[in-house]
Amino acid sequence: MIISVLVEIKFKQKEKTFDYIVPSVMIDKIEIGKRVLVPFGKQKLEGFIIEIKEKSDYELREIISIIDEEPILNKELLNLGKMIAKENLCNLISVYQSMLPKAYKASIKTNIKPKVVTFISLTDKTLSKNYLSKTKSVKQKELITDLLNKNKELKNKYESYVVRSLLSKNIIKEEKEEVYRIYDKNECEELRKLNPYQTEALNKIKNSEKDVILLNGITGSGKTEIYMHLINEVIQNNKQAILLVPEISLTPQIISRFKNHFSNKIAILHSGLSNAERYDEYRKILKGEVSIVIGARSAVFAPFKNIGIIIIDEEHSTTYKQDHNPKYNAIDVAIKRCKYHNAKVILGSATPSIESYARSKKGYYELVELGKRANEAKLPKVKIIDMKEEIKCGNSIFSRELLENINDRLEKKEQIMLLLNKRGYSSYLMCSNCGEVLKCPNCDITLTYHKTSGMNRCHYCGYAQNKVDKCPFCKQGELKSFGIGTERVEEEIKKIFPNSRILRMDIDTTSKKGSHEKIINLFMSHKADILIGTQMISKGLDFPLVTLVGVINADTILNLPDFRSAEKTFQLISQTSGRAGRSNLEGKVIIQTFNPDNYSINYAKNHDYIGFYNEEIKIRKNLKYPPYFFIALLKISGKEFNISLNESKKISDYAKKNKSEDMIVLGPSVSNVSRINNIYYFQIIIKFRNKEKIQELLNNLIIITENNSKINLDIDINPISL
Questions:
Q1: Residue 495: its pLDDT value, please?
Q2: Which of 313, 327, 345 is nearest to 244 (CA)?
Q3: CB of 286 within 8 A of CB of 236?
Q4: DSSP helix, strand, coil percent of the chain (3-state; round to 5)
Q5: From 3.40.1670.10, 3.30.70.600, 3.30.750.24, 3.40.50.720, which CATH number describes the 630-717 domain?
Q6: Residue 258 has what DSSP assignment?
Q7: Average pLDDT in the 116-140 region?
Q8: What is the pLDDT of residue 438?
Q9: Whole-angstrom Cα distance, residue 504 to residue 522?
């Protein structure tokens, strides 16, 4: 028998497999989708079995061993990987690797193994009772009594000499058993009864003949309860369900709600788990012990064999698109998987992406709407504050009205959430004498000052230096902080409200394992009054005592040179506003901005998604952006500025010369950040309608540039940002 094996070796070809002979003693264990250890030159590499055949045109070597007892990539995932690789113009091995947790990736060496513990149990109850009546050892009596009341106990619960003595007398026996690192035994609670609006939406979803349903429900309308009812029905029909969430911060609350009903039928897959925990969770799925997977983007590849539904919560979130190869979008993958399983995809959001809502209006998706909050709570009142006027009064960070409202909520023992989508203490440091700004030596970006660590950091390459007070350029002026981040907001709030209890939630405070859950639980149990955070606090979280939300600067995304900036601003403000007044307490939102007349901010103020959509879709149509055109983003990078620029021009000229009539080629232009880690970046944007023609053009560009060692060409189909 001969097998074709895909290994992780860089070749000019997108896909390269190597043939090996299978020794006769291993033939019975060979299956497509398993990993094998093979000789490769002087190395030993792991790879995936892609094909089984009888002959080969090459002189072959034998495989060394078979790694897996069962295939870790089933037929569906193997074929899905090929589709993703073709559509995203990337290597097949990179797709398969992205489907798997670290412990299962080929060529990734880990020492992760199942966690095995030793239990002890009685060999014979009658014999044990007789021995119990005779022994004088108090410790032995305790152990035997425990085992008479329970079938087994952990061996290490008892002193070793007691265990050894009873083992030698054959009173007890040892049993080794695999246990999972995450195991919660929850009592199953009944599902909450749906209100009439939720029931109507649920029935519309169940009766829809469409494969994809867009559930457009305002914040607090109870979309999660509908998800639970849909999944419950899927499981009762002996099928499986996947629920994707955009942020790790959302998983503790959602997992808690799901486990209260579905108990241990759930596996969790996200980057907040240790590698060993993810290994265990994946084993539960492979062994068929769970029927629900909850997780972030990569959980869409969970190796289920009978999917009944895939639900994507907060479908508008940019985190569902992977920003490195393979640059897949989890929504596209979910649709492909559900087509294979004849299942439904549910896209849920209070602020759907423009593309998704346009598809629902065109009839490609079923549109189901929830226009009222689940508990009849009112949407919060929203006030826009013009910070240009506030600055005239000396208020650069907080408006008078925001501070008055914070003080009011603190007196009422209610809670406040403050959003600023910028971490760190200040945005940049500038010399008061010569005006120079402190920049990263490796990137064309200013260094962000982090006061907690006393460091100036680059958020692109990771460069860090100790804070300096004197200007390194003129050696005379003082470096002054400009711009604000979440650290600065926290410091100022502590000064103004010294008795308030404050939590901060951003990348800097959530880097440790379990930190998301700790912060959320502290705030939920009212151990803090004010939660300050970046966009990770903006969606999905439910805190009944939050009655005030303050958006410190609504312009952080609005000012970015990106065609989606208005959409992202509307979504961020709307989602953050939705955290206020979710119970029987009235909510209020204060939006601070330097652009009070901007349409995205005003539509967010009025909770008017339809109005925003109608305004935005006209702009997209005029400028030929999605959903009217698809986009391919070509990034050209190299170590030399002039060489990279010249090569970018050649690529652009070729694209313009060979494009079809429905294509528009823009560029080359310098990327938003022209230099990162001493690599220069240029970009070309191609707008297109015909996917087959763009594939042909891009494949030709890959062939033309693959031998050019001076530059690297990176292609992103339908990028989230430009």
A1: 97
A2: 313
A3: no
A4: 35, 25, 40
A5: 3.30.70.600
A6: H
A7: 93
A8: 93
A9: 11
Q: What is the CATH number of domain 381-425+484-620?
A: 3.40.50.300
Q: Cβ distance 640 to 675 under 8 Å?
A: no
- Counting residues of the chain whose pLDDT is more than 70, the rounded percentage is 98
Q: How far apart are CA 337 and CA 345, in angstroms?
A: 9
The CATH superfamily of 2-71 is: PriA, 3(prime) DNA-binding domain (3.40.1440.60)
Query: What's the distance, Cα to Cα, between the start and end of the chain in Å?
Result: 49
For residues 428 and 483, give the distance between their C-alpha atoms in angstroms, rounded to a whole number: 7
**Residue 437: pLDDT band by 50, 70, 90 thresholds?**
very high
pLDDT, one tens digit per residue, over 695-717 is: 999 999 999 998 899 999 999 99
Name the pLDDT band for 214 (thresholds 50, 70, 90). Answer: very high
Rounded Cα distance between 709 and 639, Å, is 11
* Spatial separation of the C-alpha atoms in residues 603 and 518, rounded to whole Å: 34
Among candidate residues 98, 152, 100, 99, the one with its CA nearest the CA of residue 125: 152
How deeply is 715 buried, as exposed, middle or buried, from its count of CB atoms within 10 A (0-12, 13-18, 19+)? buried
Residue type at 260? N
Given a cut of 80, whether residue 183 has pLDDT beyond it is no
Structure-token pair, residue 707 = 């031998």
d(CA 268, CA 292): 9
Residue pLDDT, tens place only, 326-358 = 999 999 999 999 999 999 999 999 999 999 999
pLDDT at residue number 519: 94
Q: Which helix (H) or strand (E) holds 147?
A: helix 138-149
> Letter for the amino acid at 719?
P
Separation of alpha carbons 144 and 158, rounded Å: 11
Cβ neighbours of residue 28 closer than 8 Å, sequence gap 6 or more: none
pTM beyond 0.85: the answer is yes
Contacts of 520 (CB under 8 A, 6+ apart): 249, 252, 253, 541
Least confident among 12-16, 33-37, 195-199: 12-16
Please check whether residue 575 is in contact with residue 455, taking contact to mean a CB–CB distance below 8 angstroms: no
Q: Summarize pLDDT for 217-259 with one digit per residue, the tens.
A: 999 899 999 999 999 999 999 999 999 999 887 777 888 889 8
Per-residue pLDDT for 107 more than 90? no
CA-nearest of 77, 82, 83, 79 to 99 is: 77
CATH of domain 196-370: 3.40.50.300
* Confidence label for 486 from pLDDT (cuts 50, 70 and 90): very high
B/e letters for 157-174, b = 16+ CB within 10 Å, e = fewer, are ebeeebbebbeeeebbee
Question: Which residue, among 340, 290, 349, has the nearest Cα to 317 in the 3D structure?
Answer: 349
The reply to whether omega before 101 is within 30° of 0 (cis) is no
How many whole angstroms from its chain centre is CA 432?
Answer: 41
Calculate the CA dihedral of residues 591, 593, 595, 600 and round it to 10 degrees: -40
* Token output for 493: 């709030």
Region of residue 213 (left: phi > 0; alpha: psi -120 to 50; beta: else)? beta
Q: Do the Cβ atoms of 285 and 304 come closer than 8 Å?
A: yes
3-state class of 435 per DSSP? coil
Burial of 271: CB neighbours in 10 Å, binned 0-12, 13-18, 19+: exposed
Question: Which pLDDT belongs to residue 691?
Answer: 92
Q: Which two tokens stand for residue 257?
A: 């709600």
Residue 10: per-residue pLDDT: 65
Give 4's strand partners: 19, 51
Residue 96 CB neighbour total at 10 angstroms:
29
**Each residue's pLDDT tens digit, 647-656:** 999 999 999 9
Q: What pLDDT, on the 0 to 100 scale, is given for residue 667?
A: 93
Torsions phi, psi of 531, nearest 5?
-115, 120
For residues 231, 234, 236 and 242, what is the CA-based torsion angle, rounded to 10 degrees?
Answer: -60
